Amino acid sequence: MTAAPHSSADRASDALVALQGVTFGYDPARPVLQELTLAVRRGQITALLGASGGGKTTVLRLIGGQQVAQQGQVLFDGDDVGRMDRRALYAARARMGMLFQLGALFTDLSVFDNVAFPLREHTDLPEALIRDIVLMKLDAVGLRGARALMPAEVSGGMARRVALARAIALDPELVMYDEPFTGLDPISLNTAARLIRQLNDTMGMTSIVVSHDVRATFDIADWVVILADGGVAEQGTPAQVRASANPLIRQFVGKDPDGPVRFHYPAPSVQQDFGAERRP
Question: Potential cystine with 217: which of 162, 179, 211, 259 (Cβ 3.0-4.6 Å)?
């Protein structure tokens, strides 16, 4: 069950993550985000949607400190990620989990060792305790019995679940999912979506889901943010976004091939390319 809806003002007052007036571009002359402001409320699943190249993954990179905003603030639990020194940034990242596109498992490590990796890297826990934690995390995603398999021996959907177990190994406060449903069959997709919702609620986490799958994302999200032209085109509960009168949002939610986002790339007129003046 999703949490009760809250207004944008409520979200800002209880935000684990907040972007305030953020401008960023990999080429400063061509910003991907322009004065973007949004809030990710504690305990909820916030979905980031929008067209390809709209800045969704860039938002995750800014939160994780892989990139620094050229303007504005990226706040994690009230602290500006862009102003953190290395020690503070690493401490913040230890409170975050990340599920990368397609899982990004270490191919030369077993399922068990993939999940154990962050525990061995970031803690001094004894191996006996690491074993118990890894098995609990694998059990949470239904893969305790697959502990000895190698990544090449599991399906794409199973690999994504192994990656999810690794992402929650350190009991993070925030988990960021970058396209968690890409390339999954319907059964694996529904399993992944259910797990994201279940883990968020049972572990008391906060989640950000970047996705192009409108149906699966709307089914599990508490709050939806649709990015366009460097900013927020629409935000609200899934029901509020579905009811939007904005033509861009209606096109995106309805998956229409044409609308404000044009199907045809700008080209000379048909008459210019195929008109009488080109005929023998």
Answer: 211
